[in-house]
């Protein structure tokens, strides 16, 4: 079993790699109308901010919330003081090609944990977080948020709710990746096959093992629809096994290893997401943490897709008491 520190390190590397590609946001619903609903919620929140308001985004990723905040302020002819932190070594200006103007107005700090915010007391008027704070140790990070918020300042946090579509979908995907990456699963059988090709021996035995594993995958797909990921990967393994003479064994081995690595990172991110979801128990812990004297006007409510009624996340808002 992996130790907690190995897991934390894998998580950090997984997110780092994720943010080094040209994407502004994570965990957005596949449905564009639902994603637009989330954007509308945030732009509504940002439209109430006055000029010069100091905003901190916790677990900012590539800064989607702050880009929306900057746009919303620019539309009103105002400027905000925008700061984003993330545990991963982020560098949105380098990796994101969209929203460059908005992102240029933000001070980003990578390698910073929500549990140890490197800011003075009362340094911000607003703290926001989208699918972020819940990834941290909430007992510690919520008191950090309280500390850096000025009296009267507010917290606006959109968290993964246990029944949200993203959470349900992620659980299915993790199960599929667990199947693909199991010790006796299709990735292991394909790696065994490519090793046999590279060594030029025991090829028939390795092909039999691969075929048996792909047959198990076929049965898995029949029992667990929809299994697109399993189908897609196993389809490409099948193709490479049948057509192996058209490829260099080294190229097949490299491709399999690259995909295995990518999948390990992807599974890590989704496992983190599942661990971060606000289950009813975690939700009550949050309520308890915010019920202390430092907070008032605590509201927790679901954000739903107005078209389908699907749960998109849980909105938690609270005000730092005077
Ligand atoms: C689902 S992403 C959300 C990013 C961004 N808010 C968005 O909506 O696109 C979760 C982020 O939380 C960050 N994270 C995880 N644990 C953290 C912690 N303890 N402190 C700060 N950031 C953390 C990860 O590095 C990742 O970038």
TrEMBL record:
Q: GO biological process annotations for this chain's record?
A: methylation
Domain of life from the UniProt record: Bacteria
Q: Which residues form the Methyltransferase domain?
A: 55-153
Q: Which CDD domains match?
A: AdoMet_MTases (cd02440)
Entry keyword Magnesium: no
Q: Which GO MF terms are attached to this record?
A: methyltransferase activity
Q: What does the UniProt keyword field contain?
A: Methyltransferase, Transferase
Claim: Transferase is one of the keywords in the record: yes
Give any Pfam family that matches.
Answer: Methyltransf_25
PANTHER family (alphabetical): METHYLTRANSFERASE
Name of the molecule in the record: Methyltransferase family protein
């Amino acid at each position: 079993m992996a130790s907690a520190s190995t897991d934390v390190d894998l998580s950090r590397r997984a997110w780092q790699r994720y943010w080094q590609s040209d994407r502004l946001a994570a965990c957005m619903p596949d449905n564009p109308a639902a994603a637009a609903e989330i954007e509308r919620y945030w732009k509504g929140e940002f439209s109430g901010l006055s000029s010069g308001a100091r905003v901190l985004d916790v677990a900012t990723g590539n800064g989607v919330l702050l880009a929306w905040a900057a746009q919303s302020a620019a539309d009103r002819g105002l400027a905000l003081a925008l700061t984003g932190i993330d545990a991963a070594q982020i560098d949105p200006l380098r990796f994101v090609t969209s929203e460059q103007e908005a992102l240029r107005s933000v001070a980003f700090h990578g390698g910073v944990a929500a549990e140890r915010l490197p800011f003075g007391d009362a340094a911000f008027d607003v703290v926001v977080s989208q699918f972020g704070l819940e990834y941290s140790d909430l007992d510690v990070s919520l008191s950090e948020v309280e500390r850096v918020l000025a009296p009267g300042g507010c917290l606006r946090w959109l968290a993964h709710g246990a029944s949200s579509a993203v959470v349900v979908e992620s659980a299915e995907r993790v199960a599929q990746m667990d199947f693909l990456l199991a010790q006796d699963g299709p990735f292991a059988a394909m790696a065994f096959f490519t090793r046999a090709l590279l060594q030029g021996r025991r090829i028939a035995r390795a092909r039999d093992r691969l075929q048996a594993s792909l047959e198990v995958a076929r049965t898995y797909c029949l029992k667990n629809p929809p299994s697109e990921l399993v189908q897609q990967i196993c389809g490409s393994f099948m193709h490479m096994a049948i057509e192996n003479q058209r490829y260099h064994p080294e190229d097949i081995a490299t491709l399999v290893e690259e995909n295995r690595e990518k999948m390990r990172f992807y599974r890590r991110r989704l496992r983190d997401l599942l661990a971060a979801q606000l289950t009813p128990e975690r939700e009550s812990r949050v309520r308890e943490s915010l019920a202390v004297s430092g907070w008032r006007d605590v509201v927790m409510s679901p954000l739903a897709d107005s078209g389908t009624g699907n749960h998109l996340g849980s909105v938690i808002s609270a005000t730092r008491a005077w």
